[in-house]
Design a protein that fits this description.
The chain contains three helices and 19 strands. By secondary structure, the chain is α/β, with parallel strands linked by helices. It has two domains: 5-84, Transcription Regulator spoIIAA (2-Layer Sandwich); 88-196, 3 Solenoid (Pectate Lyase C-like).
Length: 206
């Protein structure tokens, strides 16, 4: 192996094989670089880290956790029962809305919300964070992480790592903007469209 880490596709996911010829700092720097370049490829993948004969200290494992969690990636360590998963948090339900939960802060990398209903985020969904809702997702900030909604997504900006509504995937080429007015993303004619929330249709004069 000539690189600090070699990635190999297997039946159950991806294996990251560490190269003992490199220092841990070189391995961590290389992982950071590759994950940043190919974050969509690794997102949602079942990843296993193979030490490949390296003797990893607790500090080394903590450093690996920090790198992968920054990108919201779960992984297991080969030869051990260590598995690093996203931190699933349980927000409080809103008293007035039976199937709605409210998160009163920005979601950071490595955090996961899963709810059968609507989710309200009072902040951003940062890269590496994930929200799964069967209803709609309301974001009082910018979507930068992963969002899977059943009905719609309302936000001040759409720059998602991945976003699906129903079974439709958002075209990231349409992202990259933030807005003063909230936008709503819904599925229309088999595609996800983003438009101003509550915008009135223009009247064409004859």
């Amino acid at each position: 192996m000539v690189n600090p880490v070699v990635f190999k596709g297997v039946k159950d996911g991806i294996v990251a094989i560490l190269n003992p010829s490199f220092s841990m700092n070189e391995i961590l720097d290389y992982l950071e670089k590759i994950l940043n370049e190919r974050k969509v490829f690794f997102s949602g993948a079942d990843l296993q880290v193979d030490p490949n004969g390296m003797s990893l200290t607790e500090s080394d494992i903590d450093d690996l956790k920090k790198v992968f969690s920054r990108f919201g990636i779960e992984f297991s360590l080969k030869g051990t029962n260590i598995r690093i998963s996203k931190e699933e948090i349980t927000p409080r339900p809103d008293a007035g809305l039976q199937k709605t939960i409210i998160v009163s802060h920005t979601l950071r990398a490595g955090q996961l919300i899963r709810h059968n209903g609507n989710v309200v985020i009072l902040g951003d969904i940062n890269e590496g964070a994930e929200v799964n809702a069967t209803g709609s997702v309301y974001v009082f900030g910018i979507v930068r992480g992963i969002v899977n909604a059943g009905e719609s997504v309302i936000s001040l900006g759409f720059m998602p790592l991945r976003m699906t509504i129903g079974n439709v995937i958002f075209d990231n080429n349409k992202s990259g903007k933030t807005y003063r007015k909230p936008r709503i993303a819904t599925v229309e004619n088999g595609k996800i469209n983003v438009k101003v929330l509550g915008a009135k249709k223009s009247i064409r004069r004859r």
